[in-house]
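Aim 2 progress update. The chain analyzed this quarter is reproduced below.
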Amino acid sequence: MGGPTASDPARTGTAAPARAGELLAAAQAAGLVVPDVDLDPLTIPELQGRIERGDLTAQGLTAAYLQRIRDVDPRVGAVLALDPSALEQARASDAHRAAHGARSPLEGVPVLLKDNIGSAGLATTAGSRALAGNLAPDAALTAQLRAAGAVVIGKANLSEWANFRSTSATSGWSGLGGQTRNPYALDRTPCGSSAGSAAGVAASLAQLAVGTETDGSIVCPGSSNGVVGVKPTLGMVSRTGVVPLSLEQDTAGPLARHAVDAALAMEALDGPDPSDPATLERPADVDTSFGRVVEGNGPSLSGARLGYWTLTPEESAAVDDRTEAVYAGAVAALRAAGAVLVPVQLPDTDAVAAGEGVALGPEFERDVDAYLAGLAPGQPRTLEDLIAFDAADPVELALFGQETFTAAASGPTAASPQVAAARADARRLARASIDTTLAQGPGDDDDLAAVVSLTGTPPDLVRYQNTDGAPPAFVYGSSGPAAVAGYPAVTVPAGFAGPADVLPVGVTFTGARWDDVDVLGYAAAFEAAVDARRAPRLLPTAG
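Predicted structure tokens:
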């Protein structure tokens, strides 16, 4: 699969670009012309318009993305594996459109899946060499994308095991995929764990990608790579067939260069699944009309009451001045668009984080053991099996350890009173922190529609514990309350900071449980008002 070798465990994989070149050569020999198209600015509605007019085909669009993977991904390392049937899928999409019309707005649209999401015909590995032979079937969300007509172009690299193997892990590194790099500055991390999903769409290696988040793993890479990242309400999108970290917090969600594309992806991904009880908790009257966002009929910023999450003095001292200026500019832009901004600070964030920290390890052991138990013979069966594999492997522990794994295996179980109480308290406090912040007073007139926050600080340099003495630094993030509560959060590009102002910075819109459409709508309205994103230039360094 083009992963790192023992002699260079950090190298960027090359198998996917090589396969892309092979597929393109075969297709061109058969007469397919790769269209000359600037992929970065194009939205899905614009692509569909071109296809309907006959100016483009799904085959041509897929070929253009394969060419981009061939040419660009050797430097970025976002694509862990390429689906060899991608062009066949695109041909089938063109044939279906010609015979029956488009199945959905995703007809013929190339999508990358984070490699903890099952996709038939490709290994589902969570980035680990231990699962290199795990040929799992389609996850429920993958089947939904296929039913919508999307083209699964391949698997995206990730922070191995969703960044849950070590406290000293480097975001974007996996034993199979090597290091994914930030396309804005190749010496910087892409954040994680949906590193390849975010970097892949940022670098125009796919129109859409799907990532997963337990805490920050969609919104952080979304912010760091200058794209829109949607962390839905827990239960909005099925997790069946997704390698778990903790089913108490895990959810999948789209990453896209444009909010309209993320909304169209949510239209396809949303839905109940009898195999995932969380999706059955959704009330019958929940608004799932993501098409309103696409049509420009989402909520207006004009007159909207929004909280803006202020930094504490300690946080302000840690966050660099330029990043704070980007955040201040975002707040000013919201005011200029007519929103009423109310300063807030979400309470109990330390207690929420502490409870989450107690619960995640035992929950990981419970949920990953259950996932592994359902795999085909010959695959690891338990967390203990994974620990033993890593200890014997020449690559897995070359750059950092697996102390998070060993702590989870040796600690209390998820069913223990201590862990169960920690989870219950963390969820209660997280939900109360958002609910009480949104409800500013006894009457509805004081309520806030959403809370806006700085998603995080710009990404740090790529470094490794075992070779550089320290992993990349993590300075600030606002993902915790929404992640632990299971509430929706959407990050959207807000500007640039870091050396020479070349590193993206995003802001996050967080809302009430099941308020996903409006939260994404406010993010889309902010995107339209600010238009902060610009295409990455693959700079070798940010300076």
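The longest strand covers residues 489-497. The domain at 15-530 is CATH 3.90.1300.10 (Amidase signature (AS) enzymes). These observations will guide the mutagenesis experiments scheduled for the next reporting period.
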